Amino acid sequence: RQRWRSKKKTLQKLPVHMGLVVTEEEPSYADMASLVVWCMAVGISYVSVYDHNGIFKRNNSRLMDEILKQQQELLGLDCSKFTMEFANQDKADEVLNCQSALKVLSPEDGKADIVKAAQNFCQLVAQQQRTHTDLDVNVLDNLLSSTNGFPDPDLVLKFGPVDSTLGFLPWHIRLTEIISLPSHLNISYEDFFSALHHYAACEQRWGK
């Protein structure tokens, strides 16, 4: 714990929202839980976990149990200072009431969510509650349910050999820094912190 505090001070900036994207076929609950708890420990406010098969989302209670276990093991007496909740996608206010918020996502929260948002907007136009000229970035953001209450990711750690994020929030990562790591299996805290250090040192031009 002392190591986390001292190392955190060496970072010039932290991501507010980090995405953890697993492209490997066999996701590890224990290793993903470690990554989530490390995010909590260094002060990252929002964390999204994603695998392209939706395994973590279908078994989110198992993932939460592992997170709570490792929270106690890794943070010890400090764990009372850190709260992690699965964000209820139907109640955005719950996202904002905890120190660190977690969303577990699957491909249905990517392109399918954009299609659903577009359909909802068309219905509003048909009902004359909106006009087609109302559609802009902010309106679409508000119609998307997958990240309701979450800012766009600042950093994505992509794990595995596939050179793709495999559908992870395609609308939200246009300005996201993406760092690829060989695997999330047996990942060390040093690997995690090295990625944070790389992010802190990068110059983001915001498309300019």
UniProtKB/TrEMBL annotation:
<keyword id="KW-0221">Differentiation</keyword>
<keyword id="KW-0675">Receptor</keyword>
<keyword id="KW-1133">Transmembrane helix</keyword>
<dbReference type="GO" id="GO:0045547">
    <property type="term" value="F:ditrans,polycis-polyprenyl diphosphate synthase [(2E,6E)-farnesyl diphosphate specific] activity"/>
</dbReference>
<dbReference type="Pfam" id="PF01255">
    <property type="entry name" value="Prenyltransf"/>
</dbReference>
<comment type="pathway">
    <text>Lipid metabolism.</text>
</comment>
<protein>
    <recommendedName>
        <fullName>Dehydrodolichyl diphosphate synthase complex subunit NUS1</fullName>
        <ecNumber>2.5.1.87</ecNumber>
    </recommendedName>
</protein>
<dbReference type="GO" id="GO:0005789">
    <property type="term" value="C:endoplasmic reticulum membrane"/>
</dbReference>
<dbReference type="GO" id="GO:0030154">
    <property type="term" value="P:cell differentiation"/>
</dbReference>
<keyword id="KW-0812">Transmembrane</keyword>
<dbReference type="GO" id="GO:1904423">
    <property type="term" value="C:dehydrodolichyl diphosphate synthase complex"/>
</dbReference>
<keyword id="KW-0037">Angiogenesis</keyword>
<dbReference type="InterPro" id="IPR038887">
    <property type="entry name" value="Nus1/NgBR"/>
</dbReference>
<keyword id="KW-0256">Endoplasmic reticulum</keyword>
<comment type="pathway">
    <text>Protein modification; protein glycosylation.</text>
</comment>
<dbReference type="InterPro" id="IPR036424">
    <property type="entry name" value="UPP_synth-like_sf"/>
</dbReference>
<keyword id="KW-0472">Membrane</keyword>
<keyword id="KW-0217">Developmental protein</keyword>
<dbReference type="GO" id="GO:0001525">
    <property type="term" value="P:angiogenesis"/>
</dbReference>
<comment type="subunit">
    <text>The active dehydrodolichyl diphosphate synthase complex is a heterotetramer composed of a dimer of heterodimer of DHDDS and NUS1. Interacts with NPC2.</text>
</comment>
<comment type="similarity">
    <text>Belongs to the UPP synthase family.</text>
</comment>
<keyword id="KW-0808">Transferase</keyword>
<comment type="function">
    <text>With DHDDS, forms the dehydrodolichyl diphosphate synthase (DDS) complex, an essential component of the dolichol monophosphate (Dol-P) biosynthetic machinery. Both subunits contribute to enzymatic activity, i.e. condensation of multiple copies of isopentenyl pyrophosphate (IPP) to farnesyl pyrophosphate (FPP) to produce dehydrodolichyl diphosphate (Dedol-PP), a precursor of dolichol phosphate which is utilized as a sugar carrier in protein glycosylation in the endoplasmic reticulum (ER). Synthesizes long-chain polyprenols, mostly of C95 and C100 chain length.</text>
</comment>
<keyword id="KW-0443">Lipid metabolism</keyword>
<dbReference type="GO" id="GO:0006629">
    <property type="term" value="P:lipid metabolic process"/>
</dbReference>
<dbReference type="GO" id="GO:0032383">
    <property type="term" value="P:regulation of intracellular cholesterol transport"/>
</dbReference>
<dbReference type="InterPro" id="IPR001441">
    <property type="entry name" value="UPP_synth-like"/>
</dbReference>
<keyword id="KW-0460">Magnesium</keyword>
<keyword id="KW-0325">Glycoprotein</keyword>
